[in-house]
Design brief:
- The protein contains three helices and four strands, in the order αααββββ.
- It has 135 residues and is of the alpha+beta class.
- Strands 1-2-3-4 form a four-stranded antiparallel β-sheet, covered by helices on one side.
- The termini are far apart.
């Protein structure tokens, strides 16, 4: 009889732990990214897009894509990478330069995030990325 009570208590305790563990796992999927995490992810996304633009240009005699979606074959999971985690909007692409041969193409960014409270994220054709703070 003592063993039956002990096993029952152990079983109830195990069920309690499992159900709490399941609730904890379910709550993990609801965790929001912090602002810093979103900025870091956006910096990575913009860098990956810049690398994709360069890969596209390498395959197209130095010509840059006219639209950002032309590089989707050069980026894993383009639909997620092309969307800014801060604003939820697609990144903006500046098609000012048509070729890597254009003069001063490194001086100006080609990829922009939407402006947000923390500033703006810009990507350049040499694949460097900056986070400019709001003034």
């Amino acid at each position: 009889m003592k063993y039956a009570i002990g096993l029952t208590i152990l079983l109830v305790f195990t069920i309690f732990l499992v159900s709490n563990h399941a609730r904890a796992i379910a709550n993990l999927t609801k965790i929001e990214m912090s602002e810093e995490d979103k900025i870091a992810k956006s910096l990575r996304n913009v860098k990956e897009i810049c690398i994709g633009i360069n890969a596209y240009a390498a395959d197209n005699d130095g010509n840059l894509p006219q639209e950002l979606r032309e590089i989707k074959d050069y980026i894993n999971d383009y639909s997620k990478v092309s969307k800014c985690p801060i604003s939820g909007e697609m990144y903006r692409y500046s098609y000012e330069y048509k070729s890597l041969m254009d003069k001063d193409y490194l001086a100006n960014p080609v990829i922009y995030s939407a402006k947000f409270d923390g500033g703006i994220i810009k990507g350049y054709l040499d694949a460097h990325v900056v986070h400019e703070l709001s003034k």
